[in-house]
Amino acid sequence: MKVLKKITTLVLVVAMAFSVNVTGTFTESVKAATEFQITSPSDNGLVAAGYIDIKWNNPIGGTASKYNVYVDGNYVNSTTSTTYEYYTTSVAYHTAWIEAELSNGAKEYTKTVKFGVSKKGLAVNDNMGRRLDPVAMNMGWYYTWGTTPFLYTTYGSVEFVPMIWGTGSENAISRIASSGYKYLLAYNEPDMPMYDANGNFVGGSNVDVNTAISHWYKFAGKSYHLGAPAPALCPAWDSGTWFRTFMDSDLVDKSTIDFIPLHCYYGTYGGAAGANTFLKEVVDATYNMYHKPIWITEFAVSGWGYSNASNRKQVEAFLKTAIEGLNKRSYVERYSWFSFDTTDNRNGASALWTNSTGKLTDLGNIYVNNGNPTELAVQGSAVNKYQPSSDNGSNNSSNNNTNNQPQVKKPARAKISKLKNVKGRKVKVSIKKIKNVKGYQIKYSDSKKFNGYWQKNSKKNTYTVKKLDKKTKYYFKVRAYVINGNKKLYGSYSKVKSITVKK
């Protein structure tokens, strides 16, 4: 019996190996194990705007002393890790490749990976979203107003963003932080009740502002990028007192807030004019108040039922104009339209689909087909010009002859020599001079993570930053640049230095 079991086991193993090889899974695993390559994002895949993890495996020719990361043909940074967090809100197709500098002096290169970036997402609960295919809809991310993602396979490759809807779900914060989620949304419409005076559900989490202020420490200090509470009433409106009170509190460390989510439902106000008002009076106005990246996690036109074709056309014009404007604004990281159901007699004109079938409306087709990544009009080399040109794409660690090297060397890493307060809410930045560079780029923020930042270029190694907020701590980092053809080639950023602005 023991011999029979061994023979049976051997046959099963051989059969399994043969089966795996036939399906191609075995081939892919061998490829992943034997090639130095980018593993994320996937080639020709779509990812959400904001912070994007570029990941790769280890080189095969030896141990890497460091990796050089190139995006859109330009050097962006070096790291000793096999992952790099790259930030962009450019809705376009981007390219990435990695150069590994091995400890034996050789180099290896990955193939170039092309990936699209989208700001568009889905705001869906189970009833709304179960019949949708977010990949086919060109969505980069989704959220459910909850803390756990959908188990539907159609959502498996799309980024999920958890939300702490109200104080009752705060116990999920530690689990979310340990699960590797990149973002967390905080309270949903804390400035609104759950039901209105007539007993109609309006969706607010109804969190007292002083409670939110005293609980904020529970959210802060984790590995994710943290969103502020999402108010129902825009902070720039006279009625937006809840959010302004929250942000004005000395007990809330504003550097812990990485982005601001907004909601907006204009009542029977559509067309391009309505969208432009939304862009200026909600989106731009809030950014100008806080200089933090903006998410619009719910927006739509309310008050029109689905049956009126003329009203639907106004909503379609609103959405087209809004998508164009949101994509153009670099400080807008993400957005998600709120889709009322077509059966909603009061708000159905804003329906992207019918919940019971998942069938898209004309408005839904506009959301799917507009605002998608396009080819970059101007970029560096889209192809890794250093990678071997062999047909099988295998890496060649000896491929490092001088003819393949950049004609212009990137500058040395910059260093801030001094930050000094200057009267009138100014800070003078002094940079250690680097020879043969064309200038310096100064990036500064009131967030330690540089979520929401300002950027200045200077041809001199000193620069005075103006119009800063008094009694506010600012963080600075700088880098030098040279000119390579018609583009700037940047060196590495300096270490971050901080200073608190005096009166």
From TrEMBL:
<dbReference type="Pfam" id="PF00041">
    <property type="entry name" value="fn3"/>
</dbReference>
<dbReference type="InterPro" id="IPR003961">
    <property type="entry name" value="FN3_dom"/>
</dbReference>
<protein>
    <recommendedName>
        <fullName>Fibronectin type-III domain-containing protein</fullName>
    </recommendedName>
</protein>
<dbReference type="GO" id="GO:0071966">
    <property type="term" value="P:fungal-type cell wall polysaccharide metabolic process"/>
</dbReference>
<feature type="compositionally biased region" description="Low complexity">
    <location>
        <begin position="389"/>
        <end position="404"/>
    </location>
</feature>
<dbReference type="InterPro" id="IPR036116">
    <property type="entry name" value="FN3_sf"/>
</dbReference>
<dbReference type="InterPro" id="IPR013783">
    <property type="entry name" value="Ig-like_fold"/>
</dbReference>
<feature type="region of interest" description="Disordered">
    <location>
        <begin position="384"/>
        <end position="413"/>
    </location>
</feature>
<dbReference type="InterPro" id="IPR024655">
    <property type="entry name" value="Asl1_glyco_hydro_catalytic"/>
</dbReference>
<feature type="domain" description="Fibronectin type-III">
    <location>
        <begin position="412"/>
        <end position="503"/>
    </location>
</feature>
<feature type="signal peptide">
    <location>
        <begin position="1"/>
        <end position="22"/>
    </location>
</feature>
<keyword id="KW-0732">Signal</keyword>
<dbReference type="Pfam" id="PF11790">
    <property type="entry name" value="Glyco_hydro_cc"/>
</dbReference>
<dbReference type="InterPro" id="IPR017853">
    <property type="entry name" value="GH"/>
</dbReference>
<dbReference type="InterPro" id="IPR053183">
    <property type="entry name" value="ASL1"/>
</dbReference>
